[in-house]
Amino acid sequence: MYKSYSMELCGRTLTVDVGRVAAQANGAAFMHYGDTVVLSTATASEEPRDGIDFFPLSVEYEEKMYAVGKIPGGFNKREGKASEHAILTSRVIDRPMRPLFPKDYRNDVTLNNMVMSVDPDCSPEITAMLGSAIATCISDIPFDGPTASTRVGMVDGELVFNPTSAQRAVSDLELTVASTRDKVIMIEAGANEIPEAKMIEAIFAAHEINQKIIAFIDTIVADCGKPKHSYQSYDVDAELWEDMTSFIPGPEMEEAVFTDEKQVREENIRVLKERLKERYEETHPEWIPMLGEALYKYQKKTVRKMILKDHKRPDGRAITQIRPLAAEIDMIPRAHGSAMFTRGQTQICDVVTLAPLSEAQKIDGLDENETSKRYMHQYNFPAYSVGETKVSRGPGRREIGHGALAERALVPVLPSPEEFPYAIRAVSETFESNGSTSQASICASCMALMAAGVPLKAMVAGISCGLVTGDTDDDYIVLTDIQGLEDFFGDMDFKVAGTHKGITAIQMDIKIHGLTRAIIEEAIARTREARFYIMDEVMSKAIAEPRQTVGKYAPKIEMMTIDPATIGDVVGKQGKVINRIIAETGVKIDITDDGNVSICGTDADMIAKAMKTIEIITSDFEEGQVLEGTVISIKDFGAFLEFAPGKEGMVHISKMSDKRVEKVEDVLSLGQVVKVVCLGKDKMGRFSFSMKDVK
Questions:
Q1: Which residues are annotated as a binding site?
Q2: Where in the chain is the domain with CATH 3.30.230.70?
């Protein structure tokens, strides 16, 4: 049966249609927010997937170009693989949803969000987040929801909720907060150095709005929600667990995992697994396929107990202690900028490349306000960085997400295109990984940018905090600088990047049903203290401030402004003039419609020559101006000179020498370069030039 539900959300109407479309999905919500339309569906397989030890959740965010009245580019004229923006949105939808499914659920679940219409003032991303929550809540899929999401901006120091397109364009904050009934379950933020106190205020202001949305979702579920279906549990067999924990007592497992060397720990666990296989291969062979999951659970229980009750970390560090740090620059000699940042067994080398603004990345998506970006941050995670062997098949969702997080953290401190007219690409290569490579990427990238001569407004560092919780909200411990094991077995990965002044990016992943305000405040305070230490004690000692000039291998760029009416003169018919300047100087020239000219090259003299040529082409001659011209035509009465492509003038035979000249050929020849002075305009309004009056 078709039913429709509505509420007012941040000044616009949110409408949810249930039973109108996609009736064969387990749950479907046809979402309308203003003129934004998103179809959100939740489907689950009837049977669990065999041979896996994880919950197989897939989240899709499909951008249909008809949603903004566009035909897709490219040869096929249809949507292809997901854009980076779509992938990042899928990750944001996934993060608050995944913790609310049963941990032992093995049925495939797909949350699909198809964007069919975009109102620039009503975020399709937020609409899809709400749609996924509603579709899952009303379905028969086991889910401990609902969850709700709100976006927060800050304009002129004031918080705005689900900001309009105009507000987003001038906002100093782009924050997305997802909540359950009682707690915050996801935070994603980019910010222009927002103070910690203001960020906390924004998070919990959004949390209050989310409670109103959750109440709205509750009314929908109460009216048309389906009963949740039963499922086959894949929890560890109780008899196996009892035998394993008695055969390998707690102190022995503690000894196996209590080391700061990842390879040693993995070898210790491998030995334990072999012992268990030998024990069960005759008596309980059916248990052997379960050993991986059982040992994982045993390690997790051991690590969590050590941290929460004993305040002992696997590598022996104190709760607030950061692993050993190292930083250096200029690792790659021919690169425009490079730096390496090491934190324990996490090591990132970042390489920066500078190029003309014309090399900025073009974006073909649903956001009409963003058609290109000049700063591109990319992150690579090869298998060898974790001691594994795997064929590289290009960046996955994780790599794209980590690159975007580092990019978001550094954008607020980049100089404007007017201050630094370059497109910038930073590539973070993961050499070794054991926890929070994304935050190490931010540190390495900041140093590489400064080494490349990019005049950053401030230094940026990033760090991650973890969490282990007990049975009550007050029973928890926050860990500074988590390594991989603490991430795997802990409850939170709270990443914060920023300057001394404030926060530039946040990304929070959790595995539990939300965080209290006390935990969030402590995590933000811890990351502030840690990033100050990283910047002041480590990064600043490698490079304290940006270099004054770009490196010798980097292109040099000069900017000039011309009258837009003269752009055609510089370009010439079919590009002949500009192509000739490029051929003669070896530079690259880009001209915008408003007359801004960018000249890029590696030879400063050639850049200066190109600038001088364009200056001559675009300006009128002035009396007394001394120029150099090339003889291009000889007549009986004088010679024509070219001062720049398409810019010519004539020297009368009487102005060639103090002595009488019988024939022009006696003084000049084709191709000869001579100096002349402009005498102003003659009686017919034409400029005349003289060789003999040059002083």
A1: 487, 493
A2: 3-151+196-224, 325-497+516-542
